[in-house]
Amino acid sequence: MKIFDCVQWLWKVSRGVRLSIAGSILMGAVHVGASLYFVYVCKQLIDIATRETDGNLGVYIGALVGCMVLQLVLSAVRSRWVSRTEIRLRNELRQRLFTHLMGSCWMGKNTLHTGDMLNRLEEDVLTVSDALCRTVPSVCVTTVQLVGALWFLARLDMRLTGILVFIMPVALLFSKSYVRRMRRMSRDIRRVDSLVQSHLQENLQHRILIRTLEYTAQAINKLVSIQTDLQRRVVKRTDFSVFSRSMVQVGFMAGYTVAFLWGVFGLQGGTVTFGMMAAFLQLVSQVQRPMVDLSRQIPAFIRVFTSTERLAELAALPLEEQGQPVRLNGSIGIRVGHLSFAYPEGRQVLTDFTHDFAPGSLTAIVGETGVGKSTLIKLILALLQPDGGKIELYDSARTVVASPLTRCNFSYVPQGNTLISGSVRDNLRMGNPTATDDELRQALHVAAADFVYALPDGLDTLCGEQGTGLSEGQAQRIAIARGLLRPGGILLLDEPTSALDNETERILLDRLSRKVEGKTLILITHRETIAGLCTQVVRMKKTETTPQLQIVKKR
Questions:
Q1: How many CB atoms lie within 10 A of CB 7?
Q2: Whose CB among 68, 204, 485, 518 lies 3.0–4.6 Å from 432's, allowing a Cys bridge?
């Protein structure tokens, strides 16, 4: 993204907090005005005390105290104001991006790593919210302070002001080469930082597997390698930034020296009063400090633009079709016609697949690993879009093309352990948030998961991430019960009995066949015992001479 595009994106996401940001800038500007007036009051007090000018000492002492109190109050109020604005923006931005990600199209292996997305939602959102609520107002207030201090200084001595501005080489930091190099280094650091989080997240999630494979040492070594690369890049950027700031600070030191000596010789020659000398030194400080602050904000803005690019990438992910769900009534069928699909890397999975899953039918899809069984389910659910052909859902009254809006007609139980951390009740109610305890009991019974009521806390038994605390077979049956609670007329089961023993499998299938009467049931399985219980079997095979698929139907 170009800088202008980044600024446009930041302006867009600041909607809702712009007035709060403006209020922060206004309070900061008033604080600057109070600090400059403080300098004027100090000058007058010193000149009155040294009898260089006439005036009421008590009035100026009162003004001095008033300035200090006003600055203290403004500082406290502004600090609280900024904190409230920042946390509000951070939460809103993270929520918007999370909502977008949850509604974005599934892109298979090209999807961003979960650790990378988490890193962006945490670190980059923090960087952007901090920039909009703190850095931008700070730069505006600092600019006001710089202009005000220069104007005040020019009123005292125009020649000194010109010398100070000439000596301080602020423009050096704004060179295109500096910005371009800092931006490139910041982008590389954020990329490697995402790799660290991705590595941590994935290895912690699979730490049991890694320990059993005795791969812990390699996982640690890889983390050390990535972190060493991150440290090297951070040190390199820091060295470059420190060197640049040091060159500017040399100019600032020279400017302060000139102002100090200017005052010394002015005092000696009688052209400068003690009050003017004190004002010189305070104003030079108020000129230098804003310039130092502005120079330090340049790397910060570069990091902000890098984070903006990363968040804009998330916001640009294509969304699924939005709208009102399209719900069919009664028994629902699925008509697949001449379906073709290949993944982006070029692997052809389905070619001219045609089949009608009739309403109320019980179909087993059987085939070797990698033949396209799970891909077919993702196409039916509209998680993927076909390259050719079409998929339609139909009832006795109408026919609609499969899309994200027709997903409400499905109950889907994916392969493997898909429970989330929380109670068993929480997991079940993902299928139907309004399900009663009786409905939960019925679904658990059909799924051969009555064991839940023998657990110490029954439905309120807690399970950890990915069903930790339950066996694979127990987690699988709870997931099936969750799917049964869905109101859809089509039930999709991907290897639903892979972790079950033969007896439990028999009980489950017997209860399912009676429970789903009137529903269309599709099972992906490699077990012939399950296929034998189904009214239809679709065998998906690859020939040895061609990647084309052969579909064999058996009633």
A1: 14
A2: 485
Q: Measured between alpha carbons, how far is 292 from 221 in angstroms, rounded to an integer?
A: 41
Nearest by Cα to 88 from 179, 23, 158: 23
- Amino acid symbol at 66: G
How many H helices and E strands in the chain? 17, 12
- Distance (Å, whole) CA 88 – CA 476: 40
Q: Which CATH class is domain 3-315?
A: mainly alpha
Q: Are 133 and 17 in contact (CB under 8 A)?
A: yes
**Residue 537 β-bridge partners:** 364, 554
pLDDT tens per residue across span 110-148: 567 888 888 899 889 999 999 999 989 988 988 888 788
Per-residue pLDDT tens digits for 162-198: 666 655 554 444 445 566 777 788 888 888 988 888 8
The per-residue DSSP string of 365-411 comes to: EEE-TTSSHHHHHHHHTTSS--SEEEEEEE-SS-EEE--GGGGGGEE
CATH of 333-554, one of 3.30.460.10, 3.40.50.720, 3.40.50.300, 1.20.1250.20: 3.40.50.300
Residue 451 DSSP one-character state: G
